[in-house]
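Submission checklist for the structure archive. All mandatory fields must be present; incomplete records are returned to the submitter.

[x] Identifier: F-actin-capping protein subunit alpha
[x] Organism: Nyctereutes procyonoides
[x] Residue count: 299
[x] Sequence attached
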Amino acid sequence: MSLSVLSRKEKERVIRRLLIQAPPGEFVNAFDDLCLLIRDEKLMHHQGECAGHQHCQKYSVPLCIDGNPVLLSHHNVVGDYRFFDYQSKLSFKFDLLQNQLRDIQSHGIIRNETEYLRNVVLCALKLYVNDHYPTGNCNVLRKSVKNKEFLIACIEDHSYETRDCWNGLWKSKWIFQINPFLTQVTGRIFVQAHFFRAVNLHIEISKDLKESLEVVNQAQLALNFARLVEEQENIFQAAVLEELQELSNEVLRKILRRDLPVTRTLIDWQRILSDLNLVMYPKLGYVIYSRSVLCNWII
């Protein structure tokens, strides 16, 4: 169906859906391409702002405020397309299309024992991230749900190489409640890669985890938490690498080969698979130390 016969609401729904589907690092490219098709600057700007806000939350888009990294997520949304940063104590809007902060305002926080623990956990997590991710970012947020205090730790690293036709993202999120003796940590590790040289290949891998941590004191809790994150992410990475190594030529053929019209032309699948192997495996550069392969394993 042509876009010209759609109602305005239908256009808005289609545009928003297409923009939200944009892989990490490719939102602006998708927006520019849609602008050429829609040719309605006001409509595209409004939908771009809405979809960009959701994109930032979905992929933990990193910012830098006063020299400190900030990860955007639905946990630090304060309404009206605004985000809040605990370190700078500022709330703001973020224009993903222009890559700039807007409408910056001060935003107070309650200084209590949970806030002190948040800072201790953040320090421990930064040590881990600095050892494993050369360009990684982390953030620790607070949240109260029914008078119960939670800490949410987020980690993100990416390598966006659009000119070389690939993008990769690693992110994880860890949540635990502030309990006196024992707390349960709920985590989720997520990896997404997009390779679009010769083929259009999307990979998404995720894992949910639940572990328990003993609470002795704040310093010990922070160190044990950082060790837990390191252990679980190392296990996840090793498992994914093992799966990739077992991806044989036969499996690749089943994934990539499809029924074609009869043209009486022979296709040299072995040569194609060999070329793919040359692209996919020998150039596994360690961009993220122990996390690198999962951000750009495709290249």
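[x] Structure attached
Curator remark: Residues 8-106 form a domain with the Ribosomal protein S3 C-terminal domain fold (CATH 3.30.1140.60). Residues 279-290, 292-299 have pLDDT under 50 and may be disordered.
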